[in-house]
Amino acid sequence: DTTPPAHFLRQIVKADQDSGKHSKIVTRFPPEPNGYLHIGHAKSICLNFGLAQEFGGECHLRFDDTNPAKEEQEYIDAILQDVEWLGFQWAGKVRHASDYFDQLHAWAIDLIKAGKAYVCELTPEQAREYRGTLTEPGKNSPFRERSVDENLDQFARMTAGEFPDGTKVLRAMIDMSAPNMNLRDPIIYRIRHAQHHQTGDKWCVYPSYDFTHGQSDAIEGITHSICTLEFEDHRPLYDWFLQNLPVPCQPRQYEFARLNLNYTVTSKRKLKQLVDEGHVSGWDDPRMSTLSAFRRRGYTPASIREFCERIGVTRSDGVVDMGMLEFCIRDDLDAHAPRAMCVLKPIKVVITNYPEGQVENLALPRHPKQDIGTRTLPFSREIYIDAGDYMVDPPKGYKRLVPGGEVRLRGSYVIRADEAVTDDAGNVVELRCSYDPDTLGKNPEGRKVKGVIHWVPAAESIECEVRLYDRLFTAPNPDKSDTGGGFLDNINPQSLITLTGCRAEPSLASASLDDRFQFEREGYFCLDSKDSTAERPVFNRTVTLRDSWGQ
Length: 551
Ligand code: ATP
Ligand code: MG
Ligand code: MG
Fold this sequence. Notes:
Layout: H1 8-18, E1 26-29, H2 39-54, E2 58-63, H3 73-85, E3 95-96, H4 101-113, E4 117-120, H5 124-131, H6 148-159, E5 169-172, E6 187-191, E7 205-207, H7 209-220, E8 224-228, H8 235-244, E9 252-256, H9 268-276, H10 291-297, H11 301-311, H12 322-336, E10 339-340, E11 342-343, E12 346-351, E13 360-365, E14 374-379, E15 382-386, E16 406-409, E17 414-422, E18 428-436, E19 452-453, E20 455-457, E21 462-469, E22 496-504, E23 516-519, E24 523-527, E25 538-543
Parallel strand pairs: 1-2, 2-3, 8-9, 10-23, 12-18, 16-19, 21-25
Antiparallel strand pairs: 4-5, 5-6, 6-7, 11-22, 12-15, 13-14, 15-20, 16-17, 17-18, 21-22, 23-24, 24-25
Helix pairs in contact: 2-11, 7-8, 11-12
The structure holds adenosine-5'-triphosphate and magnesium ion (MG) (2 copies).
């Protein structure tokens, strides 16, 4: 049975459809274009698009673009790309909250005419004082007494650009003693003389999030407006606007717990700080928690969707282990990624008894279980193996090459280490080995060779760069720092290891950006989409073969 378990939102949507309350489910994903999408957004995307898909409805993509100062076209483009990459398609055109600025403005005037909104000139400090606290009621602004006509005139002049930023706001007149602070005459319009990426300089007053969101939902016929728990106590305000305005329908807001992932941050503000201060190379630095970073690192959309399904949807906050995400990508890549060999720290091996000039083209399966063909590896007298696969004083249980010992070369012969050539500092620079010609595809006579190591041909292998990533933060909760300095204190200085002079098997010369590989014994890798060139391939390690964190 592949039917996913019915989390509470699935149950609500199903009940609404079964009862005929809604004939068609309409959801939306409403990002603010003030940064790149992160793994937390993936949870919301999978939930909103997933529910629409599952129940034969539709999901809108709507940019929540009411704050022109922080928003940019670059972010809009990145968000569109990320949603499509995750495998979802929005219904109809891309929408913007700013598409509704005319309607929202007209509704603000309706509220003024109904005596339910007023222009207030308290300074921010005064407004804070009048607002009261959680335990004390607020008090009415003196501007609450303004007449409808004066309010209409003031709002018209705000809109016409007569006043500087921050001097006046339009507030809904609700209840300054409401226990829910959001109902204490919330701001619905503010003055902001700023260029907007969609509406240019048409407006110098912009609606607040609260005044925009529910009404945009209503305009679009959203049935289930799903957001994270921090909006729970905005819901009475969401409902208040819908009840006090002539909106075409009454959407309902539901909240779920946001995704928190350990060893990382999922806040656009913090991610932007990492970029702006140069702690990472950009929003798509493969160590970031953004979707563009996961894409560049080699994560598949399917693995992220699977992760979002596995973590479930609840109303209680928790922290998900990064290991769960890694499990999902490992599982996917183990099943699908072709195998290849790449030697990260090469030392040359000369097989002294192998005839000079002879080459055998060995065919190795691309995958141990999938029938996806073979690749060719030329075997001859000189090969590379990894420096870590030869030790003079091996620890107990070491199954690789030791002086006088034998090991199997993956898909090839058994070799024995006869002699090590060292440099002045005593480092092994070359091994001289002999091979047993009777061991291709069969066990040697009369002895057991346990170890199998990877290798590449010296002449035909290609030089490449390999980037190994570790977690960007050393603490499970990066926001909690011992020194009180914040999340930047917990940056892992060893989160990126760049290896140059690595040697990849020749079949990798034709790798494309969409390919993903298991480099045997080293992990899963893909080409880096930014820095890799045909002459200088750069491979990113997506994830290790096993969960070795903390070992
Ligand atoms: P940030 O704090 O990173 O700026 P945000 O909530 O302000 O996040 P939005 O662009 O407003 O970012 O988010 C779009 C949608 O994605 C919202 O519905 C929001 O609730 C949801 N979302 C954001 N972060 C998470 C998260 N960590 N887990 C689940 N959903 C999230
Ligand atoms: Mg938001
Ligand atoms: Mg935000």
